[in-house]
């Protein structure tokens, strides 16, 4: 489904990584590991269509995924370092349609009508993760997804990941900590 072929990323005058190649089939998961500054977040942004590559190609189903960035965007759910929630809105208002489904998936149903400015950091992260449950995106790109989560929330997130993969979805996650993923490939960036 997703094929990365000899991509090279450059920031300023410095090669961040490359050439880098890998394939990920339906239901697959890849964990990106490496020290800070090794290019994990840069790779996720490139795969989301938000960053630029100097060389190589990112393909989806055999076709150049970046030839139609808007179309590729419909396949991607990207969770960066920031939670991308609006503090003045309630949890339900932040999620919009299907909010109840998303809030239930992350155990925040009881806070559906609470303004997000009163949420803890972990609750805000869970709200950001709730979007994954309601988006129909086959490719989840996750940058430090468990940041600020307690053990119960990480376990709940593991259920979400397993369900997504069982339905043929793909997961690529950058992390410094173990994630609740089984049968996962690892890509180490130096």
In words, what does this structure look like?
With 190 residues, this protein is α/β, with parallel strands linked by helices. It has a single domain, classed as 3-Layer(aba) Sandwich (Rossmann fold), CATH 3.40.50.300. It is built from six helices and nine strands. It has helices spanning 40-47, 69-73, 91-95, 99-105, 121-134, 151-166, and strands spanning 2-11, 14-24, 29-33, 55-60, 63-64, 76-79, 139-143, 170-174, 185-188. The longest helix is centred in the last third of the chain and has 16 residues, at 151-166. The radius of gyration is 17 Å and the shape is globular. It starts with a strand and ends with a strand.
SSE blueprint:
Elements: E1 2-11, E2 14-24, E3 29-33, H1 40-47, E4 55-60, E5 63-64, H2 69-73, E6 76-79, H3 91-95, H4 99-105, H5 121-134, E7 139-143, H6 151-166, E8 170-174, E9 185-188
Helix pairs in contact: 4-5, 5-6
Computed CA radius of gyration, to the nearest angstrom: 17 Å
Task: Work out the number of β strands.
Answer: 9
Counting DSSP H or I runs of 4 or more residues, the number of helices is 6
pLDDT < 50 stretches: none
* Annotated CATH homologous superfamily: P-loop containing nucleotide triphosphate hydrolases
**Reported CATH architecture:** 3-Layer(aba) Sandwich
CATH topology: Rossmann fold
Which secondary-structure class do the elements indicate? alpha/beta
Strand order of the largest sheet: 6-7-8-3-9
Number of domains: 1
How far apart, in Å, are the first and last alpha carbons? 26 Å
């Amino acid at each position: 489904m997703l094929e990365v072929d000899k991509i090279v990323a450059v920031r300023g005058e410095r090669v961040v990584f490359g050439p880098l190649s890998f394939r990920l089939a339906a239901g697959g998961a890849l964990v990106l590991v490496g020290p800070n500054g090794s290019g994990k977040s840069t790779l996720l942004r490139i795969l989301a269509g938000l960053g630029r590559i100097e060389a190589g190609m990112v393909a989806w189903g055999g076709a150049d995924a970046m030839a139609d960035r808007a179309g590729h965007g419909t396949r991607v759910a990207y969770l960066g370092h920031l939670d991308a929630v609006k503090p003045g809105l309630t949890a339900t208002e932040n999620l919009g349609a299907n909010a109840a489904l998303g809030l239930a998936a992350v155990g925040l149903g009881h806070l559906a009508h609470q303004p997000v400015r009163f949420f803890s950091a972990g609750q805000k992260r869970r709200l950001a993760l709730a979007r994954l449950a309601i988006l129909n995106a086959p490719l989840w790109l996750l940058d430090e997804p468990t940041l600020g989560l307690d053990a119960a929330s990480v376990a709940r997130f593991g259920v979400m990941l397993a369900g997504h993969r069982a339905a043929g979805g793909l997961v690529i996650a950058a992390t410094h900590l173990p994630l609740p993923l089984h049968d996962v490939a690892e890509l180490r960036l130096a």
